[in-house]
Amino acid sequence: MDSPAVGSNWEVEAENWVRWARTPGFDAYWYYSPSFFDEIVPRPGRQTLEIGCGEGRVARDLKKRGHHVVAVDSSPTLLRYAKEADPDSRYELADAAALPFTDGSFDIVVAYNSLMDIADMSGAVKESARVLDAGGRFCICVTHPLNDAGSFVSEAPDASFVIRDSYFGPRPFEGHFERDGLQMTFHGWMYALEAYARALEGAGFVIERLREPSASAEASAHRFAYRRWQRVPMFLQLRAVKRSG
């Protein structure tokens, strides 16, 4: 969760985000993250870096799966919450496009729903490549570019999905959401799939796995509106490997 503009917005929204993220079963993370950990993230290695850790839920889940985690974010308040919840791991204030680590420090880098929050997305991808060992894996989840470009006209399972402007970006995004007494304003960037692919190619990565998970039966049973997301992908999940040489 980075870049001066977007990073400051996450600091402003920090308290709202902590309540949002730590309410069990509340948002899509609870239903989509298991497939990410199972299918995208490889087995733990020497050291795993998480970019844009927020209040730390991804880092904590990685730790439960045996990863030795170092995590960075641009929001001091979110980092404080992350450290309080997991005092044994290392959390640092940092810009994703200027990471404070030496070359080849990690064998896994994870960016779970953070690349679309970074204005210099390609710079963050290059930095991820720099701090990875040759053959290291970059594990990414982002809001699906199709999802970013359009919206459903209603919450009905068969509602039409409409792209009113353009699929192509980049362009800034802002969305305010309120549900069950919680509220959150998200700020970020809309990137087309090609923009992510070009950033990875330019940094020396090769995509080795790509998934577009649909809403699970559990998600649909929990919240009626998730049934729409069995027809259109909400997230894009992928794993890229850093080429040798």
Keywords:
32% helix; 11 strands; alpha/beta; 28% strand; seven-stranded mixed sheet; 245 residues
What does this structure look like?
There is one protein chain. The chain is α/β, with parallel strands linked by helices. It has helices at residues 4-12, 14-21, 29-40, 57-64, 76-85, 121-131, 145-149, 193-202, 217-222, and strands at residues 48-51, 69-73, 90-93, 106-112, 132-143, 151-152, 161-162, 171-179, 182-190, 205-211, 235-242. The strands form three sheets. Strands 3-2-1-4-5-11-10 form a seven-stranded mixed sheet, sandwiched between helices. Strands 6-7 form a two-stranded antiparallel sheet. The chain has a two-stranded antiparallel ribbon with strand order 8-9. Mean pLDDT is 94; it is low at 1-6.
What's the quick description here?
The chain has 245 residues and is α/β, with parallel strands linked by helices. It contains 9 helices and 11 strands.
